[in-house]
Fold this sequence. Notes:
Blueprint lengths: L28 H14 L1 H18 L3 H6 L9 H12 L18 H11 L11 H14 L9 H10 L6 H17 L2 H11 L1 E3 L2 E2 L1 H9 L8 H9 L14 H17 L1
Antiparallel strand pairs: 1-2
Amino acid sequence: xxxxxxxxxxxxxxxxxxxxxxxxxxxxxxxxxxxxxxxxxxxxxxxxxxxxxxxxxxxxxxxxxxxxxxxxxxxxxxxxxxxxxxxxxxxxxxxxxxxxxxxxxxxxxxxxxxxxxxxxxxxxxxxxxxxxxxxxxxxxxxxxxxxxxxxxxxxxxxxxxxxxxxxxxxxxxxxxxxxxxxxxxxxxxxxxxxxxxxxxxxxxxxxxxxxxxxxxxxxxxxxxxxxxxxxxxxxxxxxxxxxxxxxxxxxxxxxxxxxxxxxxxxx
Length: 267
């Protein structure tokens, strides 16, 4: 009968401890997550900066570089603001139809163009997309009055928001607006920016662009607008869903008279 050496263990009973000099086992997925979580807790400032950097990278990747470049020769078919208004109407159960008809800048009366520039961005043809003096004045006034008493958006900034963003005022959206604004100024001429702006700006519920506004409120093409009608249209740009340019409210009368005085002074 053969004797079996009791010092020799069977394979199932051999020790699984690593031999000296061998590498430790790799951490499992759960172990890595715990170590990462502990690192975030121990480095709160760095963690916050990394999260912020991640948001910036994501936002940068979503900037429509090619769409902006194509605006040199292509007219935008639908803007972000149009899509926002349609979504809002659907949530309210009130379907919205968009009225817009493109008209070249060369077909618009000079007095209309001047009225819009005076009303919205007096230094449009001289700044690089952002009027830093107006930004400074706006911040000082808003801090003093503790409310958003004065805006500082240029025509190019308004166009960036209308074409690609939304009416939200969160810091990330504003930062993205600044980048798009600078890209618009980089790729497009001032006249092209103004043409797209005048043809895409909101002038009432479902009314977008100067031609649609002129037909809706005055029953005539934009090329035939008078100075009085131009000033009225310019007066409602800040609040197009609250005021109608063909009405004679105190708001319209006051803003129209102010813009008319500026228009005559600047000629």
